[in-house]
């Protein structure tokens, strides 16, 4: 439609400007809506704390529980459907899941005569988030060591204790090199023998070695449990 306007323009140019303005307004509105949606999405992600993160699953835990009947590893020995159901939706702050922890044990059933661990920790928090499975696996792998109730000793061997020499002296024993007299100790392995050579019968000397070695074994076991050891009272050096 063409026609003159009171201001000297045409009706077609006026209509075109109005249409262009409407399109610009609509475009800006669309951009604004998209920006608001994006901001809302980012805010939603940032508002979720790491400790509260969970993973949504398409199927129930029972449908995704792995078949471990032919597996020989510590993970397979301790994972149950109930534990899997409680842990499968949890996620560590770094995004690590239970399925990622156990995947290596699922893919590698293990050797019938060599029992492996069968799981890995993806980050430090894995040991806490999935503690219900990690704790029994650690306990089995490390011969009953419970990471929740036990403290690992810094030194498990009595032969490295500074009191060993005095303990041996009071037991009337001595330590020599790995190969006996005039030899060096290899790998902290000593030859334990009688300190006395005269003044006692052979039976008495053998019994001193038996009693003394048993005492040393007891000392090592006490150190393994985190308990202290004591220096025994001196054994009599003469008969009667």
From TrEMBL:
Top-level taxonomic group: Eukaryota
Domain spans labelled Phosphagen kinase N-terminal: 57-143
Alphabetical list of PROSITE patterns matching this protein: PHOSPHAGEN_KINASE_C, PHOSPHAGEN_KINASE_N
Molecular functions (GO terms): ATP binding; creatine kinase activity
GO biological process assignments: phosphocreatine biosynthetic process
Membrane topology classification: Peripheral membrane protein
Subcellular location: Mitochondrion inner membrane
Class in the EC hierarchy, top level: transferase
EC number: 2.7.3.2
Keyword line: ATP-binding, Kinase, Membrane, Mitochondrion, Mitochondrion inner membrane, Nucleotide-binding, Transferase
GO cellular component: mitochondrial inner membrane
Pfam family, one: ATP-gua_Ptrans
Nucleus recorded as keyword: no
Gene3D superfamilies according to UniProt: ATP:guanido phosphotransferase, N-terminal domain, Glutamine synthetase/guanido kinase, catalytic domain
Domain Phosphagen kinase C-terminal: 162-223
Residues given in the record as ATP binding sites: 162, 176-181
Family named by the database record: Belongs to the ATP:guanido phosphotransferase family.
Subunit structure: Exists as an octamer composed of four MTCK homodimers.
Name listed for the protein in its UniProt record: Creatine kinase U-type, mitochondrial
Organism: Micrurus surinamensis
């Amino acid at each position: 439609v063409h026609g003159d306007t009171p201001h000297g323009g045409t009706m077609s140019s006026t209509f075109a400007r109005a249409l262009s303005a409407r399109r610009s307004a609509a475009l800006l509105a669309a951009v604004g809506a998209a920006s608001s949606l994006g901001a809302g999405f980012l805010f939603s992600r940032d508002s979720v704390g790491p400790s509260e993160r969970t993973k949504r699953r398409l199927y129930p835990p029972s449908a995704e529980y792995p078949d471990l009947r032919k597996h020989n590893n510590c993970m397979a020995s301790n994972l149950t459907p109930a534990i899997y159901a409680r842990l499968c939706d949890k996620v560590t702050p770094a995004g690590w899941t239970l399925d990622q922890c156990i995947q290596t044990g699922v893919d590698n059933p293990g050797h019938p005569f060599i029992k492996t661990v069968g799981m890995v920790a993806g980050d430090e928090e894995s040991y806490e988030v999935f503690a219900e499975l990690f704790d029994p696996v650690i306990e089995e792998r490390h011969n009953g060591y419970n990471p929740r109730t036990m403290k690992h000793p810094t030194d498990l061997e009595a032969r490295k204790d500074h009191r060993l020499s005095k303990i041996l002296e009071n037991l009337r024993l001595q330590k020599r090199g790995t190969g006996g007299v005039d030899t060096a100790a290899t790998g902290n392995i000593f030859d334990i023998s009688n300190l006395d050579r005269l003044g006692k019968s052979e039976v008495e000397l053998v019994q001193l070695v038996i009693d003394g070695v048993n005492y040393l074994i007891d000392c090592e076991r006490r150190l393994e449990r985190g308990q202290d050891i004591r220096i025994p009272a001196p054994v009599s050096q003469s008969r009667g």
